[in-house]
Amino acid sequence: MDFFYLGILIFLFVLATFDLSVGVANDAVNFLSPAVGAKAAKFRTILIVAAVGIFVGASTSSGMMDIARHGVLNPHYYTLSDVMCIFLAVAATDVILLDIFNTLGMPTSTTVSMVFGLLGGSTALAFSKILDGGHTYADLINTDKALSVIIGIFLSVAIAFVFGFIVMWITRVLFTFQYKKHLRYSIALFGGVSVTSIFYFLLVSGLRTSPILANIGWTPDWIDQNKFEILLTCFCLFTALMEVLYLCKVNIFRIVVLFGTFALAMAFAGNDLVNFIGTPLAGLESFIDFTQNGSGINPENYSVSVLAGESHLPFKQLFLIAAGVVMTVAICTSKKAHKVVETTVNLSRQDEGEEVFSSSRLARRTVRGVLNATNTMSKYVPSCVSRWINTRFDQEDAVLEDGAAFDQVRAAVNLVLAGLLIVVGTSLQLPLSTTYVAFMVAMGSSLADRAWGRETAVYRITGVITVIGGWFITAGAALIVSFLIATINHLGGFFAMILVMCVVALVVINNNRKFKQKREQDNVDTLFRQLVRCHDKAETWQLLLQHVRRTQTDILEFTRNTFRNITQGLMHENMKFLRTASHDIENEKGIWKRYRRKEILGMRKIDYLVAVEKNTWFHLGCNNATQIIYGLKRMLEPCVEHVDNNFSPLPQDYVDEFIPVCNDVDHFLEVVQRMISTGNFEGVDELLVEGNAIKSRISQIRHAQQDRIQREDSNIKIALLYLSTLQETQELMSAARHILRASKRFQTQ
């Protein structure tokens, strides 16, 4: 039996190692997105700063928080067998949920995942003990502590957003978007306040219980007793230092951003480390205590009261250093970390670009309500005040680094304010989620910076709602999944735990495979990223040409495949083909909507005279691509209704008549696709004539079909379906001819 529990511990540490890499990928958004979004330094430099902060934070951490040991469950009432069931359930739940969210590129909270996982697993075992009699739920679960953790975590969402909005608005009024013009008398003060805040955050959240500070007498009690003197001294020193550096032409905002990145990374590693390795270390300490004191005692009867006190685990610091190494490697190599950072940066960027999220009813109503409230409030603000404030938010000459999503002022505010809020929460003994605080501060500051214009607000708000909804889903899912896994472990024993381990391994492998596939699909449109970052109009035009050429080629490829699926599905009564066509049409509608918006943004960046010359042909191609998608949808719907209801099939004479038409249309689309993709339009006039001839043949067949309908012996349903299909095929040919003509005029000089 001892060997069995040792095997579980080994698996827990394997999961913890994976959890460290997955967790740091998720929480990378906390300390990477401000510096990455503002281009405060090269990405490699930012990663190095964050990696150093992570390693130092893990190495100097004093150890474990109480949450994993006795913050949720009461160890006096649980046995070694119980906590192994719970810790395995928590670790499995944590890894599965975090990996799913990271694969989707959505930031979530390791704190929430662990706390609700512990609550769910402990509750499952608590119910079994309550049913056995002699205990109440309040005896087994620290309900007060668990409730305070939950309230503190979710309250931080609203607080961080509101403070992010207010502080960013005040900061922008002071500095404006042309902040380099307003630094002479304010930058030293701003830098002093910012660096002092970050330093104090580092002191309280990152190094508060560090043995290094304890050796020089800076104990937690001493820091609390002398906080005012520490803050005043640091403010004076850092303000003077910032003024000297400014006079030496050093970018103060860059210093603040990089220092803030280091501090948040260090505090994350020092405090949130428990979210990843707290449960396996608690399990290890329980197992060591059992092997030393539980000789001859059944593990199902051995109490783990050792978890009720402080941790005395030997070689604990080595585990923390090893965890720091794993996280440092993960932050430098994880593509998932980059994906999560992209989500937050995309939602908070200053300019227009690719919108990842679509519109939603709640977002539309929210925007409409805010606009109405703003219009009402503006009536009571003097016009002179309103005009002055608008000048402070003038973005015409905004100072942005090449390719940056927002400026370094906002990046500094995001980091400083996130650190301050975490410090306040820590001092008030309120547990806060660093992910929630960092993300919501970024969203509040972007709203204050007027990054959410009327053209983008619904998409950004939908994104924020999606992310916040994901957080609540994390809580509920962690509670339920951990409860179920712990119950299975408890009832099924050895075999159930082995099954859980196998399922977790399969889920992790499958999620990584899906992430790689999704990443390959995302990498298809790297051309648009180059286009957005390009500032040379001639080069932008060439990139736009490539993008439009590729988009139109993809549309024609989709058209050929979908038209083939619809016609084959109709003629052979194959619902599989029709369902595939339906799925492809819905998917293509979303893709085409994003591509069209991207290319319109590209048209804005090219030379004005070129845009005037090419606009007509660009929009003609776009409109006909849209017509093709909706034409295929109109063709599909009656075919699906007919085949799905098992109505009479198309007569063979209809099929024999329609097959040559389908072949001619497919061949025409293939040649058009090849011409557009290569940019070689030699023989285009002859092809247009051929396309017109195909249209004429379809028109003749359509007129003949109308005559058939007049006959009394024809099946009306089939006759009308065939007539509708012919008409949509003719429209498809017309749109394809227009795309070919528009593409030729758009691509050629």
Question: What radius of gyration results from the CA coordinates?
Answer: 31 Å
- The amount of helix comes to over 70%
Major sheet = none
Terminal CA distance reads 80 Å
What portion of residues belong to β-strands?
under 5%
Write up what this structure looks like.
With 749 residues, the chain is mainly α. The chain has two domains: 2-516, no CATH class; 528-747, Methane Monooxygenase Hydroxylase, Chain G, domain 1 (Up-down Bundle), CATH 1.20.58.220. It has helices at 2-38, 43-60, 67-71, 80-103, 110-132, 137-140, 143-175, 187-206, 211-215, 220-225, 227-247, 252-271, 273-293, 316-333, 335-348, 361-378, 383-392, 408-427, 434-448, 457-522, 526-533, 537-572, 575-605, 608-644, 652-678, 684-709, 716-747. Helix 8 (187-206) crosses helix 18 (408-427) and helix 22 (537-572) packs antiparallel against helix 23 (575-605). It is globular. It starts with a helix and ends with a helix.
Based on the model shown, name its key terms:
749 residues, Methane Monooxygenase Hydroxylase, Chain G, domain 1, 2 domains, 27 helices, 79% helix, mainly alpha
